[in-house]
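May I ask you for just one protein sequence along with its backbone structure tokens in two labelled lines?

_____
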Amino acid sequence: MTSRGWNTADHSDWGCDICGRDAAKRDVTRRGFMKDGALALIGTSAIPAFLSRSVLAEVTTAAANQKKLVVLFQRGAVDGLNVVVPYMEKNYYAMRPTIAIKPNEVIDLDGYFGLHPQMAAFKPLYDQGHLAIVHAAGSPDPSRSHFDAQDYMESGTPGVKVTEDGWLNRALAVEALEGKPSAFRAVALGTQVPRTLQGKVPAIALNNLADFSVGGRGPQMSPISNAFQAMYDGSTDSVLQGTGQETFEAVKMLKAADPAKYTPAAGVNYPNTPFGNSLKQIAQLMKANLGVEAAFSDIGGWDTHQNQGGANGQLANRLTEFSNSITAFWMDMGTDAENVTLVTMSEFGRTARQNGTGGTDHGHANVMFVLGGSVRGGKVYGKWPGVENEQLNEGRDLAVTTDFRNVLGEAAYKTLGARNLEVVFPGAQVKPGTFVNIL
């Protein structure tokens, strides 16, 4: 089959370079430490990269316009070919005799592509024009290492290992500044600030909103909050004391919002999983009007080397949680969803052919979802390269035809107002002319 245009390294084991790193994170005790003049607390909360008060003296255009960007990372390399299925491609079925999604199982999108059957929650969003899909998207870097590929995508500099900050932090840094920002301007749900949000702009990591509180001492205080406040109180560093006070004022705002008593919108049920709960808490923060402009969360479990399954099984279960959590977030935001743009990404896709253990190995191009009130959805975007043998990257993977930075760049430009995209994605030549025009 010929390529179709649409308007709309060696294998590095997941357990080696990612699971080991996660285990190390779990072993970190709740302790404070100083690094490069910044205070971070590892455990329930982390608030790194505090700078001088002058950096915090202004707020952004995005905050003034109430625009918000949510970035979700699917860690482990999701199998995009079984997520958004090219069910009209005969070779797709020839290469996947036991794990392919059959034509009568897919949720048809446009007569050529179809959603995995366990992603039924996404279909109404697609039909309503809120959800767009970019297929054959990914990084130009050929790495098949989870660690390197994730680092390149989060830094926004494929192939460059010395980048110190993340693309989303740089996007916030180049916004037009107009006033004073909230300490909740950039938030990650997790135990530490992710690579994506590291940099000059202060970012907060919260594992559980209800576990962080300030305002006095005693048995009602969480131990980690007491330790955090004690470190600030004991500091003789004027910068640290100043930013600490601002942060505690922000946390008092969070306490006033009473996260423990939060009830989602009527009819909304988040999956009771870490990912579902993280999106629920992002909705809490945003609906509490605490000044959130950028939020990040991630979900693992996509490294399906064995027993991947087809319409049911390992991948299907993950996709159910993924799509149901995002849909619950969208519904929970209500009318505020009009100001939200949500983008999903994964470090690379998987091989077009299944392997001998009923799974797939590390590949190249993948699929990205973009959801939002301003999204031109109901369409599959990108140039489809095809999956005939001669069309595959290195004879094994779906080829990349859309650089992931053009999707993220458009979201940063049109949602956050980040106009200097050369700073956000140095050397990539990302500009309005290269956008996919989803927003």
